[in-house]
Amino acid sequence: MPPRYLLRRLAQVLPTVAGLVVLNFCIIHLAPGDPVIALGGEHGDAAYYAFLRTRFGLDRPLPDQLLTYVTNVLRGDLGTSFVHGRPVVHVIAERIPATLLLVFTALGLSSVVGVALGILAARHCRGPADAAINAGALLGYATPCFWLGQISLLGLAVGTGWFPVQGMTDARTQVFGVAYLIDVLHHLALPAIVLAVGELALTTRLVRTGLLEAFESDYVRAARARGLTEASVVRHALRNVMLPIVTVIGSRAGMFLSGAVLVEVVFAWPGLGRLLLSSLLSRDYPILLGMFLCISVAVVLTNLIVDLAYAHLDPRIRYQ
């Protein structure tokens, strides 16, 4: 990978994050709703409202609040939560592991199974397996994750009892070691599958389409003429198909995070999704700003990793 390419891509990260910090601040503060009313109630005393605005710095002009917020962010201070009364960094840090576990499990599941199903569909093009995979992919892509989560919860968790109804662990028993790991994986299975379905469907169709196009190319015909096995031909073609797939997986990172919010609410998963929902309802500006900053940085870094992966998958790619 050329050092110039790496340096110029890294140089784009800081201006992008800085712009997102300002944009998130303006969107949240200009959105309808007043955190003082949410905290003090609709029938509170005017003097109490004034006290809350002064305490949280909401009585100052918006540019002054923005300057203070940016200065604090540069020092690593994301503020103090209006509702929790604790530093935002600590509140978010407690929820990040659960969300990362859910998101990365769903991402890995959708990527691995999606590629496998795409290869199976391409190798049996226009056959029963291809038709079934295509129908399932279209249905999965068109199904909203929150609706699928509710149906799965009612049918597979409540109806059959195969999966836990909610939470990350069983609150009725306290286990440690391997038993704790098994308990977490048992609770994780259904939310991760629900979150992965939409991305799995998209990856499957992309792999199938890319392989069918690659099978008609000259280099695949030459590989078959040399007597390579079909598995070797697929591996040979898959390397060229991976660029658009990596692009989609990276660009959909934000969609995974937004889908995780809905899935976490449905399954009462103790991650950032439930924290985001409660913070929206209570207009907890510091928590919202901190979470939007984390999500923005995650999306920017994911796209950076995707761009760097391009140079590894195809050395011909250079930054223009």
Can I get a quick summary?
The protein has 320 residues and is mainly alpha-helical.
Task: Describe what this molecule looks like in 3D.
The protein has 320 residues and is mainly alpha-helical. The protein has a domain at 95-271: MetI-like (MetI-like fold), CATH 1.10.3720.10. It is 77% helix and 0% strand. It has helices at 3-11, 13-30, 35-40, 46-55, 62-74, 88-123, 128-142, 145-159, 178-215, 218-225, 230-251, 253-267, 272-282, 285-313. The longest helix is centred in the middle third of the chain and has 38 residues, at 178-215. The chain is globular.
The first-to-last residue Cα distance is: 14 Å
CATH topology of the domain at 95-271: MetI-like fold
Counting DSSP E segments of at least 2 residues, the number of strands comes to: 0
Which radius of gyration do the C-alpha atoms yield?
24 Å
Classified in CATH, the superfamily of the domain at 95-271 is MetI-like
What's the SSE blueprint?
Layout: H1 3-11, H2 13-30, H3 35-40, H4 46-55, H5 62-74, H6 88-123, H7 128-142, H8 145-159, H9 178-215, H10 218-225, H11 230-251, H12 253-267, H13 272-282, H14 285-313
List keywords for this structure.
single chain, 320 residues, mainly alpha, MetI-like fold, 14 helices
